[in-house]
């Protein structure tokens, strides 16, 4: 081995001699050597405003007895922060005497995750004379960033057991995740794991419904009636669209039958009950773990008060405030934002109408024939692009509205932000689907009196129904959103990791290797040298940035997916299957990203997924309403049912091969032109100069007035919607009552814990011992 000098060789020999010793020399008193937090600042010229603010903020930290270790690297200063044990002893004592204490011994010891969380709160609530906190100082460039360090031993353990693709189907180590990332991250993965498991029966049943439609793909009498028809349909647009034979839409009718059949009604009812069962069983599943982690009675507001006192003994409580003026202003702005989102949906409708017209005028036969289909696909892609843009806009607006509310705690602000952001995102994603499901083909008018937008006719439904349009819209958005999001989630951190490795190799060449045995002491009980500190700090510095939105974004993505899976499932029974396949990958993708490619998330303590539980319950109720409307209005289930039992051949006692024979013709009305089709639709060709009538989808008389059958079917539609929703809601209430939120084992465990705590405190009082505050 080549050595640059004799000192390197002597240092290596000393290291090898130490390694042969069974009991290496260590100091008798070990200090906490892991840094709680790191601040990074750009070197400033002395005497400048930024330099003075840096010094003032660091002096504030020193007054709180936080030790600061600085290491210079190029133009940056890395500041390692380590809080004294007194801070954590005070925190532990206040937790012990608080109302939310859940008595235990070992679990009350201050872990590194707890240290990070407390120090993070202190840093964010330390202000200089200008009343600026660390967040504002970062915005001004006084400090560049702040982050906590990964612990190498625990990080490697998580990489080995959890954050790797080969562990795709292995159980997740929730206790280890909780110890390293905190309860909030652990509960996210616990919820996501539970959601993924319960998607299995939903995905299986959805696949069965799809296969049921596929089994009757070629034998359905409705499909045969369309494919063998000689009916001439009215042009779908003016000037360039020619009348078509109904038989030319045979393929579309077959695709429609895959998703618009009798099985979708049963599947929609199943998914509504499934959503309730999922939430109720999740509450039980959560209770087992939070009881095990001793945070069952934990209170976020009380925790925040305790850390306020730990940070500043002379602090004053942030009192609750309410202003009707502020509430009214927030409500007006919130409603205005929803109107903007709905307006964007109208713009998408205009785009689809204009695109369909442009394609219809194309010289290409393919574009002319598939004009409506291509316009719908392009509209779905544009909708996806709009979603990506509006996500950033929605976040900014939500934060500003929360600032207007002036809430008294971080927990209250987080709840308010979650509700606003989810509502905006829900409207952004689902507004276009609402148009396709409930308005497409129903507001376009009729021959001789079509509704036009900017001179273009509105879109029409296919004679086989509009459910296929809804299916295509959902499939495009869901596939694009899940696929592209996963690609970006893994590519961006990987690229940053690649750049980090290049930087680390350059650093290695600059500073060489450290041969101090203490720097490799696995228990972390010995202070590392500056070379090893700098290497470790830079390794964490070059990882992907994390913030308060990192975990929120993951939750939002999954709850939006849950909304897709349950809300319009009657039109897309394969949605649970796509969600299941995505989640299996998503779990490991998020784990790899958090452990390997991103800075360590700030551990947060909690005993629930927070306001997301109420959001999921609201989505479950909303899903019942939407699925009832989809089946009752968008689907042809009700018209087919009415025809079968009231207007069809079987209802009239006519011997027929099938009770649905003649259904397609029954749903079509005939338009009689004043002159001919050519003049009425301003066609360029003379082929239809002698044709004076065509058919269109509607229940109308010759004078275009609505028939009695239309009103009868409409009444049955509304009756079905009311009946469906009431039956499913009753089933949801029964399921919620039948499954108790707290398992008996958890109740008994908490009962024994409380009794043991009371006995212990009574014994301590009799013996004159104070309450233990062991760290």
From TrEMBL:
Its main location: membrane. Keywords: Cell membrane, Glycoprotein, Membrane, Transmembrane, Transmembrane helix. Residues 1-15 have a biased composition (Basic and acidic residues). It comes from the Eukaryota. Residues 177-750 form the Anoctamin transmembrane domain. The chain crosses the membrane at residues 188-212, 264-282, 328-351, 371-390, 422-443, 559-580, 609-633, 710-739. Pfam families: Anoct_dimer (PF16178), Anoctamin (PF04547). Residues 105-173 form the Anoctamin dimerisation domain. The keyword Membrane applies. It is found in: Cell membrane; Membrane. GO terms for molecular function: chloride channel activity; protein dimerization activity. It is a multi-pass membrane protein. One of its GO terms (cellular component) is plasma membrane. The keyword Translocase does not apply. InterPro entries: Anoct_dimer (IPR032394), Anoctamin (IPR007632), Anoctamin_TM (IPR049452). Residues 1-22 are annotated as: Disordered. PANTHER family: ANOCTAMIN, ANOCTAMIN-9. Belongs to the anoctamin family. This is Anoctamin.
């Amino acid at each position: 081995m080549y050595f640059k000098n004799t000192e390197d060789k002597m240092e290596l020999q000393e290291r090898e001699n130490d390694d042969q010793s069974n009991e290496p020399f260590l100091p008798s008193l070990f200090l906490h050597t892991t840094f709680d937090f790191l601040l990074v600042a750009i070197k400033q010229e002395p005497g400048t405003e930024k330099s003075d603010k840096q010094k003032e903020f660091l002096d504030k930290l020193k007054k709180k007895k936080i030790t600061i270790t600085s290491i210079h690297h190029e133009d940056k200063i890395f500041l390692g922060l380590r809080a004294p044990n007194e801070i954590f002893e005070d925190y532990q004592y206040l937790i012990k005497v608080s109302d939310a204490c859940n008595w235990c011994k070992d679990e009350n010891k201050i872990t590194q995750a707890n240290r990070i969380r407390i120090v993070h709160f202190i840093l964010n609530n330390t202000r200089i004379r200008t009343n600026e906190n660390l967040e504002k100082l970062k915005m001004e460039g006084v400090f560049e960033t702040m982050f906590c360090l990964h612990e190498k031993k625990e990080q490697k353990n998580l990489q080995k057991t959890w954050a790797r693709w080969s562990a795709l189907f292995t159980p997740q180590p929730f206790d280890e995740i909780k110890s390293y990332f905190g309860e909030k991250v652990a509960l996210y993965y616990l919820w996501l794991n539970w959601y993924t498991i319960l998607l299995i029966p939903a995905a299986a049943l959805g696949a069965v419904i799809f296969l049921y439609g596929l089994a009757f793909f070629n034998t359905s009498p409705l499909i045969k009636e369309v494919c063998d028809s000689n009916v001439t349909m009215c042009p779908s647009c003016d000037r360039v669209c020619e009348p078509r034979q109904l038989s030319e839409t045979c393929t579309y009718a077959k695709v429609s039958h895959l998703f618009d059949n009798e099985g979708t009604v049963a599947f929609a009812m199943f998914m509504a009950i499934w959503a309730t069962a999922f939430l109720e069983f999740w509450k039980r599943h959560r209770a087992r773990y939070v009881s095990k982690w001793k945070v069952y009675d934990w209170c976020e507001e009380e925790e925040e008060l305790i850390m306020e006192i730990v940070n500043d003994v002379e602090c004053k409580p942030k009192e609750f405030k309410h202003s009707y003026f502020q509430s009214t202003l927030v409500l007006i702005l919130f409603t205005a934002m929803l109107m903007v989102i709905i307006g964007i949906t109208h713009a998408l409708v205009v785009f689809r109408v204009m695109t369909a017209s442009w394609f219809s005028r194309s010289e290409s036969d393919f574009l002319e024939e598939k004009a409506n289909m291509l316009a719908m696909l392009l509209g779905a892609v544009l909708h996806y692009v709009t979603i990506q843009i509006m996500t950033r806009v929605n976040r900014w607006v939500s934060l500003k509205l929360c600032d207007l509310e002036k809430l008294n705690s971080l927990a209250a602000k987080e709840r308010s932000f979650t509700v606003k952001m989810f509502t905006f995102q829900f409207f952004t994603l689902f507004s276009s689907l609402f148009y396709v499901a409930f308005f497409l083909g129903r507001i376009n008018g009729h021959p001789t009196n079509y509704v036009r937008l900017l001179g273009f006719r509105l879109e029409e439904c296919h004679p086989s129904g509009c459910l296929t349009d809804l299916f295509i819209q959902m499939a495009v958005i869901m596939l694009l959103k899940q696929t592209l999001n996963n690609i970006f989630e893994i590519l961006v951190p990987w690229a940053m990791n690649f750049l980090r490795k290049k930087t680390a190799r350059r650093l290695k060449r600059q500073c060489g290797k450290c041969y101090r045995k203490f720097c490799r002491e696995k228990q972390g009980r010995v202070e590392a040298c500056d070379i090893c500190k700098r290497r470790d700090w830079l390794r964490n510095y070059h990882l992907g940035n994390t913030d308060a939105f990192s975990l929120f974004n993951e939750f939002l993505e999954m709850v939006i997916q849950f909304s897709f899976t349950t809300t319009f499932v009657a039109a897309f029974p394969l949605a649970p299957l796509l969600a299941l396949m995505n989640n299996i990958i998503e779990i490991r993708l998020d784990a790899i990203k958090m452990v390997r490619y991103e800075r360590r998330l700030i551990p947060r303590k909690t005993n629930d997924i927070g306001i997301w539980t109420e959001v999921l319950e609201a989505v479950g109720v909303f899903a019942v309403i939407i699925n009832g409307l989809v089946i009752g209005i968008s689907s042809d289930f009700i018209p087919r049912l009415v025809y079968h039992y009231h207007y069809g051949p079987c209802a009239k006692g006519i011997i027929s091969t099938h009770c649905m024979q003649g259904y397609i013709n029954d749903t079509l009305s005939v338009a009689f032109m004043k002159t001919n089709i050519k003049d009425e639709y301003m066609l360029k060709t003379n082929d239809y100069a002698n044709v004076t009538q065509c058919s269109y989808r509607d229940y109308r008389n010759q004078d275009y007035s609505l028939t009695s059958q239309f009103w009868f079917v409409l009444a049955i539609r509304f009756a079905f919607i009311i009946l469906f929703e009431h039956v499913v809601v009753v089933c949801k209430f029964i399921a919620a009552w039948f499954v108790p939120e707290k398992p008996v084992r958890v109740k008994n465990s908490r009962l024994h814990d409380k009794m043991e705590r009371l006995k212990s405190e009574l014994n301590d009082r009799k013996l004159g011992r104070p309450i233990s505050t062991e760290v």
